[in-house]
Amino acid sequence: MSMCGIFGSIGGNSTKEIGEKACAAMKHRGPDGQGVLDFGKGVFAHTRLSIIDLSPAGKQPMQSKDGRISLVYNGEIYNYKELKDELKHSYTFTTNTDTEVIIASWLRWGEKCLQKFRGMFAFGLWDAKEQKLFCATDRFSIKPLYYVKDNNRFLFSSEIKPMLAAGVKPEPCGQAIYDFLAFGFLDHGKETFFEGVYQLRPAQYLVLRDGSLNIGQYWDIKESSPRTGTEKEITEELSQKLEEAVKYHMVSDVEVALSLSSGIDSNFLRGTLEGFGERFKCFTYAFVDTVYDESALARATIDKGKCDFYATEVTPKDFFPQYSEFIRVMEEPASGLGMYGYWLNVQTVHNKGIKVLLDGQGADEAFGGYKHYCYHRMADLLREKRFEELEKEVEAFNRVHGESLKFPSDDFEEFLRKKTVMSSMKAADGTDMASAFLGTGFTERFASREIVPQKKWEESLRNAMYNDLFSFKIPKLLRFQDKAAMAWSVESRVPFLDHTLVEYAFSLPSQYMVKDGIGKYLFRRIAEKYMKKSLAQAPKLYMNTPQREWIKGELSSAIKEMMGDSVLAKEGYIDESSLEKEFDAYLSQKELGNSFFVWKFLSLELWYRNFIKK
Fold first, then answer.
1. CA 294 to CA 300: how far, in whole Å?
2. Which residues contact 397 (CB under 8 A, 6 or more apart)?
3. Helices 576-588 and 556-564 sit at what angle, rounded to 10 degrees?
4. % of the chain surpassing 70 pLDDT
5. C-alpha distances in angstroms, 438 versus 74, 443, 568?
6. What is the pTM of this model?
7. Measured at the alpha carbon of residue 468, what is the angle toward residues 462 and 469, in degrees to the nearest 5?
8. Fewer Cβ atoms within 10 A, N terminus or C terminus of the chain?
9. What pLDDT score does 115 carry?
10. Which residues are CB-neighbours of 356 under 8 A, at least 6 positions away?
11. In whole angstroms, how far apart are CA 514 and each of 109, 351, 365, 393, 430?
12. Are 482 and 343 in contact (CB under 8 A)?
């Protein structure tokens, strides 16, 4: 197993020199070795971050013994040992790598091999017998795969920069820019911010044959009858599945550490790891001397006999040069300070010699953790005419969140409609991400496309969770996390996005997601064995960075200067006077308010300067 960078070029000018340029552009993803393979119809390139089977046997690109299959692969197939045991009678293995298991699986099952894999992965495979390229990404696109048809070439890669190094011209995608500026959307579709450069969506694969490109989907969460059983039985079953998922994500020949905050999800992982008995390291980032500093709370949760704790201080010092580099690493806009702090934190992880980092991403979306899910649960109870249960849920919600909702009341149904319609298209805390400072001509060109959340279930709650998992929240968070970690040659793993665990979660009755006025009801009950009940039952914290204070304070003058010399304004994407007027109004108001419009401008402006107008 190895985290890495992968690249492929089929047709056209696909030379080893192009592969070597790609390797140079993604060396940070794999500093332990690199390889380039010319297999006749194209070139594969690979940079290696060794995690399992650290020997030279794991070198990529890898070919089958007869040369039929050429493979370049990024990720972890956590069940590779079970698959190897299943395949050993039809294939003679020469390595202990999961890379070779993918080759053997392809020869045995073809495209259906994807159904067998449990893990995070992105790979490109050339089958010389079939004369076709096959690429795929895992069920949540934890491991990214970008692609482009460039004249008579087809390129794919773990990142966009290697394709630029291979000669793809960086042109801005107007639709992606509009969707971001107008609504705050990121990674909600196949488009990237580079025109003509696309990304495989969760659980997608592509086939390139005779110049024809076809894209399909091999997995989805299916609607099923709610799981039956007592709450005690389901709690025990879910607890076992959670522990199993974490164990799979611990498979490694190098040290595994944990990204820790003061919240429930990472502390669930901490408690599980402490139960495994081996000493490990925890890392967090800290906005010291502010009310947002979680480091003391995070430190207080650990068992000092089982865990070493490290905190990375994040300050406004040298912010703009560092944030510009952060955006270059992200390759596309990334708003806010949270992931910026994560990126700096992973540098500390790297400096401590750690290659694998567990993270709690995905628990809110898989188990119903966001506040807006409570509104969806109420809407479902209202639709199902379960009025007595709804009245109790409203009372509990008011008690937990300090609200004053009234049911029954004349305007309750309309209130829920406003709270649930397009809720997934807002920030996790309900903040509106729309902006009104776009250029008029630019808006007229791109405003016609409508983005509509999917409705796969009758239940409003399940639809909201599904859309957050596959469109509006998790895709962008996974991109941020992959780029931030791999920039420092660190593999980030997300146990809560184990697909068998998510399938199980979606089979649970809704009352195990949202109950008694709070989300992640059952998850929190299980979490109580790993932490104090007060932490396990605490409402979710949303605004945990001083990004609004920084904007109103240390960063304000530099932001005004950047707005006055905006490349985006010169190119017609934004109306400079409207933006400056909105910013001045924001600075003058006493409330901290909604600063998202500022972060949208900063990240997009810096992206444009990094990649389009250098």
1. 10
2. 374, 378, 403, 405, 517, 518
3. 170
4. 97
5. 39, 7, 10
6. 0.96
7. 90
8. C
9. 98
10. 51, 252, 254, 255, 256, 257, 490, 491, 493
11. 40, 41, 12, 9, 17
12. no
Q: Is the pLDDT of residue 246 over 60?
A: yes
Beta pairing partners, 202:
none
Question: What are the tokens at 294?
Answer: 């979680």
Q: What is the mean pLDDT of the chain?
A: 94
Which pLDDT tens digit goes with each residue over 250-283?
999 999 999 999 999 999 999 999 999 989 999 9
Give me the pLDDT at residue 137, please: 98
Residue 163: name the closest of 180, 151, 175, 179 by CA. Answer: 151
Query: What is the C-alpha separation between 511 and 226, in angstroms, rounded?
Result: 11
pLDDT in tens, 289-339: 899 998 988 999 988 889 999 999 999 999 999 999 999 999 999 978 999
Name every residue whose Cβ is closer than 8 Å to that of residue 328 and which is 6 or more positions away in sequence.
Answer: 610, 611
Q: Return all residues near 26 (Cβ < 8 A) that are at least 6 apart.
A: 5, 7, 47, 157, 158, 159, 161, 162
Q: Tokens standing for 92?
A: 């003679």
360 touches 265 (CB < 8 A): yes
Distance from C-alpha of 378 to C-alpha of 473, rounded to nearest angstrom: 22
Encoded tokens for 287: 């906005």
Closest by alpha carbon to 364, among 373, 355, 356? Answer: 373
Coil, strand or helix at 249: coil
Distance CA 519, CA 524 (A): 9
Task: State the residue for tokens 């042109």.
Answer: 171
Residue 130's H or E segment, with its range, is: none
Helical axes 372-383 vs 460-467, angle rounded to 10°: 150
Burial letters 149-181, b for 16+ CB under 10 A, else e: bbeebbbbbbbbbbbbbbebebebbeebbbbbb
Q: What are the structure tokens assigned to 610, written together?
A: 């990094």
Query: Interior CA angle at 109 toward 108 and 115, to 5°?
Result: 135
